[in-house]
Amino acid sequence: MIKIIYKFSFFLFILLAPISLNAEILKKIEVDGNDRIVKETIIVYGEIEKNKDYNQEDIDNIIKRLYETKFFSKVSINFSNGILKITVVENPIINSILVQGEPTTKYVKAILELLSLKEKSSYIKGEVKQDLETVKNFYKSLGYYSPKVEARIQEVKGTQNVLNLIFSVERGKREKISKIYFIGDKKIKTKRLRDVIASEEAKFWKVISSNVYLNSERIELDKRLLKRYYLSNGYYDAQILSSNVFLKGKDGIELTFSINAGKRYRIKKLSTNIQPVFDKTIFRPLESDFKKYAGEYYSPFKVTKILENIDEIIDDNELQFVQHSVSETIDGDFIDIEFKIYEGRKVTIERVNIIGNTVTNDDVIRSELLLDEGDPFSKVKLEKSISNLKARQIFKSVNEKLLDGSANDLKVLEITIEEKPTGEISAGAGTGTDGTTFSFALRENNYLGKGLSVDTSLEVTETTIRGGVEAVIPNYKYSGNSVDFGVFSKKTDNPDSGFENTLTSLGIGTRFEQYKNIYLGPSIELSLDDLTVESTASENLKKQAGTFTDFTFSYSVDKDTRDRRFMPTRGSIIGFAQSLPLYADDQASILNKFTVSKYHGFSDDLIGAVKFYAAAITAIDDDVRISRRLHLPRNRLRGFESKKIGPMDGSDYVGGNYASALNIEAALPNLLPDSTQTDVAVFFDAGNLWHVDYDASIGQSSKIRSSVGIATNMYTIIGPLNFVFAQDITSVPSDSTQAFKFEIGTSF
């Protein structure tokens, strides 16, 4: 028995010997080399405790924790006989950080914010190199292709281990993009791709545009935009392989995107996979979308649209903790799409934290969130919330994190945003057969950090001067509805109309989605109309001279199912608008407008469009005021001069009470070679303007005017050129026809 006990004790000694040899009880702590950092602080940051066992691993962790403070350039520890001796070499302290060679104050502030090293913090050699690259990348993002940046230190006199950090900057030349090329298997014409990306070729009329300068962040955005565009046109496997920059001496920079479009896929079948816990019948409305999209070219926007419809069904039926996913399977030249709908984990939002906003108020951000404290977590609502924030276009980036809360079923939603400059300035000029136009606009999209959009504009033509100020509240009082206020003034002096007038108006309105692609826009307007009649005008017109006050209520209803607003290939937009007088000094009237536009892509080479316009203005007690009478909108009846058809009082075109137009167009995007940079469309226009109620003797005709022609948009070194060649088919002698029309110029 004694032998057994002896052998067991010996075995236990052998087993525990390493522990007893490598671990000691800490009895005393000594610190050497510290000057600025007191001993107690070192003990706290090192998480060191007396009367506790420490082995080599524990010592290594202490060293690691002390290095993590960034207080020290060197840390060593000797531990023996219960005494822990810590020897440190302190990092210098940065007294100030200076940026030399940069004359712009806002750039200096931006650089200081980007640096990882900060004033009154420790100087770390390894981070200086990182900050040098940060400063270089900052200048490259502004278009300075080859900036020179150096860093040096300067000891502060009368101090010990304190220094100034100085960055010396040489911007170099800010390089403009002279040419943008798209190479590889791109399958889409270059001029189309140039419209997609944000970067622009430098032209003399783009003297204000910042998009003509090389910007690394913008190039990354361009690649995403190109990828998105290819996907939206059915190129499921499209890849933007690379973007290359080549400096051509004095000629600026050539930017080249390498593209592999791959195959173009159509949607074969769409279906749902719904868990038995849900009533499948409530998702039957999706079948109409499935039928509509089957056979069409694949687009992620079509998938997104169905997901949005699923979300609406979930919201309408007050379903909670529902999640969905999409499965896409390639089958030859087709893609099968399955939507899975299932019950997710039951989680509640405990708290919402907003991080990163220095200018924008918290409530602006929270107003776009569909999730709040106490709400059931929904992945879909979270994605929509992030999308809402990005859509405001006042943030450079928006990111979200879902963190653990105080219980297993609680989560903390953390929204991190990065703000961006939100001011815009633009100017424009153009000339054509209708005369010369000048324009200027100044806009701020996040006024006072409240998410307000404020827009001022001025436009001058040969016959008209118009200007105004408009403010928009995108999400008024968390309603999801936008509210806009505006003050506008317009002075018109057209010798062919027999009068001139100055119209000043103050208005307030809103626009919101009432139901699935149906938008409602009510508004009220107070206006002052100062009307002066030419001395050569008829007596009937002279009677209308004066100053009039009008107070009107207007509303519009639109249904928009277009696949995209810019160059749509399918869908339609139907709209009705009405203006009703609430008060009028004289000649009160009711205005009604109805518009329909239908688009259909027959192929990549042919996109058809049918557009209809009708308007009527009716006097309540007296004649319709001449300044309020109708004219056909621009491009509704090509081949005829604007405002020079319809009823005439002597030699004056006085407009009409009724107007209508029909446009049939066929866009031919690939008719001409890519090198021509020209879009072509053929059209048939028909319309009329008729009826004046103040004098039955006014010269007018009920005959429908019509024309056929060709419209081209050409992108040239002097700017975009818009040509219209038209031949009137039916007209009346009093009409002023226009076989050729051109415009030159653009906004910049």
Structure description:
With 748 residues, the chain is α+β, with helices and mostly antiparallel strands. Among the domains are: 19-90, Ubiquitin-like (UB roll), CATH 3.10.20; 93-170, Roll (Ubiquitin-like (UB roll)), CATH 3.10.20.310; 177-260, Roll (Ubiquitin-like (UB roll)), CATH 3.10.20.310; 266-343, Roll (Ubiquitin-like (UB roll)); 348-419, Roll (Ubiquitin-like (UB roll)), CATH 3.10.20.310; 645-748, no CATH class. The strands form 8 sheets. Strands 18-19-20-21-22-23-24-25-26-27-28-31-32-33-34-35 form a 16-stranded antiparallel barrel. Strand 23 and strand 24 form a beta hairpin. The longest helix is centred in the first third of the chain and has 21 residues, at 2-22. The chain is elongated, with a radius of gyration of 35 Å. The chain starts with a helix and ends with a strand. The model is unreliable at 4-21 (pLDDT under 50).
